Amino acid sequence: MRYYILVYDVNEKRVVKVHRLLRRYLQWRQRSVFEGYLADEELGELLRRLDSIIDESEDSVVFYSLPSDKVVHSFHIGAPPDRFENVL
Amino acid sequence: MRYYILVYDVNEKRVVKVHRLLRRYLQWRQRSVFEGYLADEELGELLRRLDSIIDESEDSVVFYSLPSDKVVHSFHIGAPPDRFENVL
Fold first, then answer.
1. Is B77 contained in some domain?
2. How confident is the model over B56-86, as pLDDT tens digits?
3. Least CA distance to A50: which residue of chain B?
4. A22-40 residue pLDDT tens
5. Partner residue facing A79 (CB), from B29, B59, B76
6. Within 13 Å, how many C-alpha atoms sit on residue B53's CB side?
7. In-domain check, residue A77
8. What is the ipTM of this complex?
9. Identity of the residue in B51, B72, B77 whose CB atom sits nearest the CB atom of A61
10. Is B82 labeled as ligand-binding?
11. Which domain range does residue B45 map to?
12. What ranges in A1-88 are assigned the alpha helix state H?
């Protein structure tokens, strides 16, 4: 079990599908950013499902893997990120 | 000195200015993602400059602060992120 920060950059055509998939595994943080704990099996499953949605030549998803959420401190400036949640 | 992962979500009108500012402080990783070490003074300076560019009601910048880059492991799926670099 590790804590993940995930940032995706995918074509508009696939954003809704990717966003909905990610919401089943992680917490949404900002327009293209999700966070949360994943067990290894969950990570494997998520990677397989993402692979089946994204276009490898065009879309990119970066995973940051941390031992726990205790090692990271996050803050934001500007608009509160959560107001995007109703966009999708 | 801490290691930062920064993800921005700003209006198209301001993306170039934000991207160029961030490139002076951090390494670009993916379309809206930068990483790197910042001393407290640099962070303060960067926050002031970002504040002067972004529209607080519309743009959002999330900072993840880590004790070092040794605690985070990152990987990506899909297209290599760096091919966006020539976009700006």
1. no
2. 999 999 999 999 999 999 999 998 865 445 4
3. B77
4. 999 999 998 899 999 999 9
5. B59
6. 23
7. no
8. 0.89
9. B77
10. no
11. 2-69
12. 12-23, 40-53
Tell me the two tokens of residue A37. 């704990």
CB atoms within 10 A of CB B13: 10
> What are the residues whose beta carbons fall under 8 Å from the beta carbon of A69, sequence distance 6 or more?
A3, A35, A37
The total domain count for chain A is 1
> What average pLDDT does the segment B17-36 reach?
95
Contacts of A55 in chain B (CB under 8 A): 78
Cβ–Cβ below 8 Å for B74 and A60 = no
The enclosing domain of A46 has a CATH number of 3.30.70.240
